[in-house]
Amino acid sequence: MRNGTDRRSFMKALGMGTAAAAMGTRAVGSSVAVGAGRLSGATDRDGKYALPRLPYAYDALEPFLASQTLTLHHDKHHQGYVKGLNATLDKLAAARQAGNYSTIKHLSRDLAFHGSGHVLHAIYWRSMTPGGSRLKGALADAVRRDFGSQEAFVQQFAAATRAVEGSGWGVAAYEPMGGKVLVLQAEKHQNLTVWGVVPLLVCDVWEHAYYLDYQNRRAEYVDGFLKVANWSFANQRYIEATAQA
Predict the structure, then answer these.
(1) What is the value of pTM for the model shown?
(2) Which residues contact residue 136 at a Cβ distance below 8 angstroms, ignoring those fewer than 6 apart?
(3) How does 156-186 read in b/e, with b if 16+ C-beta sit within 10 Å?
């Protein structure tokens, strides 16, 4: 089942109360590649994908996002992608062992859906920080080169994120073939990419990310996101991406 794809399932999860402790508590400091960098706590002792801990307390982004929103989003929705990703990999291993690829189309779709959901959420949590941070350093220089000004870049990122059709993501990314910073949309996070891009900063605009706090006021949520955007994290990812290019 596609986790977080309809409001009824979200409100059902809300009615169940806040989730139990995240599975990320069993992570042991190993890491998984996410674009240019590696984010710690995303695999466990068995090499399975695991839910990484939030880099701040559940209430640290208030009043932008309530602790209940982050608890449901992180412990329920992101955990759903992790569980789905591991289950899909197990099914693919079983298919290879049996030499039976009759469900390969379905499993390939699930792998892209859950894998992309896990990667983007892992970046999303670190795309925010209490109080926000300034856009500076090498990424700021690249933004001025590719967009004319930081203001133009932020305005395009905000406009693209607000205008995502349906559910999806706003993505600031580095494209290594042309050596450019791009602003992209992801309506379905497993589709509509430019292959090889490295996400630098992402904003989740699936309704479960903001509905408790903003209902259908996505633009207001995006404005709030920009106030807590972690540009220092984005700059570090840009430095790592360009060093590998």
Answers:
(1) 0.73
(2) 231, 235
(3) ebbebbbebeebbbbbbbbbeeeeebbbbeb
Q: Which residues pair with 32 in a beta bridge?
A: 39
Closest C-alpha to 51, from 28, 86, 27, 85: 27
Amino acid letter for position 213:
D
Give residue-wise pLDDT tens across range 81-104. 999 999 999 999 999 999 999 999
Residue 191 burial by CB count (10 A; 0-12/13-18/19+): exposed, middle or buried?
exposed
Average pLDDT of the chain? Answer: 82
Domain 7-126 has CATH 1.10.287.990: yes
Q: Which fold has domain 137-244?
A: minor pseudopilin epsh fold (3.55.40)
pLDDT, one tens digit per residue, over 12-61 is 333 323 222 222 322 323 333 444 445 555 667 677 999 999 999 999 99
Q: Which two tokens stand for residue 111?
A: 């792998």
Alpha-helical (H) ranges within the chain are: 7-15, 67-71, 79-98, 104-126, 137-147, 150-162, 211-214, 218-228, 231-244
- What residue ranges do the domains of the chain occupy? 7-126, 137-244
